[in-house]
Amino acid sequence: DSGVTQTPKHLITATGQRVTLRCSPRSGDLSVYWYQQSLDQGLQFLIQYYNGEERAKGNILERFSAQQFPDLHSELNLSSLELGDSALYFCASSGGASGATKNIQYFGAGTRLSVL
Amino acid sequence: AQKITQTQPGMFVQEKEAVTLDCTYDTSDQSYGLFWYKQPSSGEMIFLIYQGSYDEQNATEGRYSLNFQKARKSANLVISASQLGDSAMYFCAMREGHRGGGFKTIFGAGTRLFVKA
Lengths: 116, 117
Hints:
The complex is a heterodimer of chains A (116) and B (117). Helices cover 0% and strands 52% of the residues of chain A. Chain A has 116 residues and is mainly beta. In chain A, the strands form 2 sheets. In chain A, strands 2, 4, 5, 6, 9, 10 and 11 form a 7-stranded mixed β-sheet that branches. A 4-stranded antiparallel β-sheet of chain A has the order 1-3-8-7, with no helix packed on it. The N and C termini of chain A lie far apart (31 Å). Chain B is mainly β and 117 residues long. In chain B, strands 2, 5, 6, 10, 11 and 12 form a 6-stranded mixed β-sheet that branches. At the A-B interface, strand 5, strand 6, strand 9 and strand 10 of A face strand 5, strand 6, strand 10 and strand 11 of B.
């Protein structure tokens, strides 16, 4: 168990809908990262938050947005969903330890999104 | 631009033997980090090993070691004494500083390892 909790585990929805994915980081970790894993694109970095602030942005679509709350949990909002958004979405966290180990990203179990 | 290349889509290894999974990277930054993750068929991403660009010693974690050759920009994963449970997808990843003060991480395409009994 990595200590990172993602809910829900599975999500099935229709095109055009909006969903919210939730992530609770490991105790003490200040950074949260979101990734998308699909068969055609592989693992893609979406966005990073550190202590509530956006710190790095990757290949995140404008239809997607994220935030990190004061209690450090994070949500990824996906709107106007398309068939191609079907993927495994991972959250990872880091930063709670000292030294080099603070750089290690621990992943949650992922949310599998199916858009029908 | 950042790039991670894993040239072996699939590999077979006999149980109890050692295996090397290749990873090369490209970056213009001096400060970066390299990771290896394991993804079994169940789908979770399991952290294996980390190497910082300034670390002079190769990282080791149990049966895993990272053969870091900075001049060649390679970060190969060596698994010693392979076990059946090592059969999985293995991803190499690189973390680089981002202009916003955070870190962007890119992943290679992965290598699927099959361990034969």
